[in-house]
Amino acid sequence: MEDIHLLNCSLPELDLEEINLNSGLGDKKLKFPLIVNALTGGSKEARNINRDLAIICRRHGLAMAVGSQTVALENPGWKDSFTVVRDHNPDGIVIANISGMAETEAARAAVDMIAADALQLHFNVPQELAMPEGDRCFKGILEKVAQVVELCPVPVIAKEVGFGFSRESVQQLYRVGVRIFDTGGQGGTNFIAIEDKRGGMFGGELDSWGIPTAVSLAEIAACGLPVSIIASGGIRSAADAAKAFALGADMVGIAGPLLRILIEDGIGNLDRWLNDFLYRLKAVFLMSGARDLAAIKRKPLIILGPTAAWLRARGIDPHLWAQR
């Protein structure tokens, strides 16, 4: 995101109280377009983490995605590490999570487990290949996604887990019915590096693999498809989030920074961090002269450096954003 620049507006003609960042998913509304993105599940510690995050989401009006529910589908004794989210945020937006290789029955079971409002199908091919025990065959994945999209009772979100979607992948998933994409770009949690730490197959050689979040977001936006975009992968500040919205995101997802604050400093400090983050996010909107999400997407945005070079190499003109 350091290559992305919003312009300062010296005469915004706005009151901070007028900044409206309301968002939503389906019939449910959010005070802020922020998802506490998929993190964990399947242990006592994970249950406590998910409980605290659900409390935070209820308090601030945020959405929350749970970690992969495969562990609870295979071992029902761990279901409460996921259902605790709905228990503590009964009216909020809660998002189920399962592999993009999952069968339809498992996908529906994940949704039913937490009365989910949407389903993340996560795509983590590099991570699987880095794991000694990981999957090696990914044939038939598009057909499985198509079946899930057709039969799932809630919207399906295609989510990368740290390696970013290219426009070609988005176009393939769009053709089988996916209409919401979570970039999960390079720059956040690095699952290849994590697998390397536990004796993975790549030996540190491929830790830089992936499409950066800003690039993935711009590629999806430039497709011109009628889709919703969630920007995630290294979103660490209010400025990062605002830049993502200006690039074309409808929501942003944050995971790792929230988990670190919760574990190291406790729920009270996480609550304060979010208060500060959300204030700064509204402040950046005001300083950019944008009253709401629609307005910031019309503001000029300067794209420089490697991100601009990447986009030009892909036939995408960075000036499309600068000349708005």
What does this structure look like?
The chain is α/β, with parallel strands linked by helices. The protein is 44% helix and 15% strand. It has 15 helices and twelve strands. A hairpin with a 2-residue loop joins strand 2 and strand 3. It is globular. The model has no long low-confidence stretch (mean pLDDT 97).
Label this structure with key terms.
single chain; 324 residues; alpha/beta; 8-stranded parallel barrel; two-stranded antiparallel ribbon; 12 strands
Q: Treating each run of at least 4 consecutive H or I residues as one helix, how many helices?
A: 15
Distance between the termini: 19 Å
Task: Give average pLDDT, whole number.
Answer: 97
Helix-residue proportion: 40-55%
Low-pLDDT segments: none
E-strand count: 12
Shape: globular
N-to-C SSE series? EEEEHEHHEHEHHEHEHHEHEHHHEHH
Largest sheet report: 8 strands, parallel, barrel
Radius of gyration from the alpha-carbon trace, in angstroms: 19 Å
In short:
The protein is α/β, with parallel strands linked by helices and 324 residues long.
Describe the secondary structure blueprint for this structure.
Layout: E1 4-6, E2 23-25, E3 28-30, E4 34-36, H1 44-60, E5 63-65, H2 70-74, H3 80-88, E6 94-99, H4 104-113, E7 118-123, H5 125-130, H6 141-151, E8 156-160, H7 167-175, E9 180-182, H8 191-197, H9 213-223, E10 228-232, H10 238-247, E11 251-254, H11 256-265, H12 267-287, H13 293-296, E12 301-303, H14 305-313, H15 319-322
Parallel strand pairs: 4-5, 4-11, 5-6, 6-7, 7-8, 8-9, 9-10, 10-11
Antiparallel strand pairs: 1-12, 2-3
Helix pairs in contact: 1-3, 1-12, 4-6, 10-12, 11-12
